[in-house]
Amino acid sequence: MQDLIFSPSEADTYGYNALKELQSNRGKGVKTGIVDLDRVLKPLLPGDLCSVLGYTSWYKTGFMNWLLRAACEQCKSDEIVIKVTWEDAVEEDTIKWYAAETGLSISELIDGNVDWELINLAYKKRLDIPLWIVGHANTRSYAAGKARPRMTMTNVLGAIEFITDGFTNEKYRPRLIVLDYLQRIRPDAKDGNNKREQMMEAVNKSKDLAIQLGCPVVLGVQASREVLERTWKLPKLDDGLETSNIEQSSDKVLSLWYPIKTEKPDAKIEGIEYRVNENLLICGILKQKLGKAPVTFPLYVNPERGIISCFERSVR
Fold this sequence. Notes:
The longest helix has 19 residues, at 195-213. Helix content is 35%, strand content 18%. Helix 4 (90-102) packs across helix 6 (116-126). The protein is built from 10 helices and 9 strands. By secondary structure, the chain is an alpha/beta fold. It has helices at 8-24, 35-40, 60-73, 90-102, 106-110, 116-126, 138-144, 153-165, 195-213, 245-249; strands at residues 49-54, 79-85, 131-134, 173-180, 217-222, 252-257, 280-288, 295-302, 307-310. It has a 9-stranded mixed beta sheet with strand order 3-2-4-5-1-6-7-8-9, with helices on both faces. The chain has a domain at 45-253 and 285-294: 3-Layer(aba) Sandwich (Rossmann fold), CATH 3.40.50.
């Protein structure tokens, strides 16, 4: 029971020290590197759970990959960034990184139109990028004759602890962890009797992971099909497929809508200064503790090269 009870003196001490920690961490949280967004979105701090909500093919993974790259650039010598993926194979993920690094499009690389001089430079640079991946490699699966692993959150925690404390002679601290994505996480045996209970528990475990490891965790969340029936299709807080727990447990919730997937090219969207094209990505800050929300931004995206930047003016 002592772990659950805090006297006035203890509460005062914890609160005071937390405030001092926030002051000492000013400027040290993970920023997105997108200027307009960072003006409003407070940095992702240790213990934060940030959910990224979007429908299929609305650039959730691309956005989270951008956050990973931004976090890598902000890492200290003893820090690493970890991507846990139930989706992309290591090969696919690295090819996307090559595209962003070299300026070559993903389509060009997949089609075999490769500038090997640029790729070799990117290959050498990737060796020094502190980005670790927990997931599967198609090549390794083929060689072993095994299917890709169906990871639970218990598996994820074990893998991360092994990386930070046992995989090499170095001791690492995670700067950021990305989980891609919620609905693909395999439940542990005691996570509930139905899909909704299992998803709620996965969100709880994602938040616990952020607190236990002392770093922000970014969680990709699939939006429900109901968003497709609206004129304004940016997912709302209660649009997470099979779970409403992201609304309660997340410290920050970001929402994405990629209009070229739902609207006609060059169409006008009410409230948006820019017309629909392959470079328009709409991002909403639906929730942030102690910060401004909701706020919506039009962002510039180049999916073929993994680039995200800001348009001139925010909206809504």
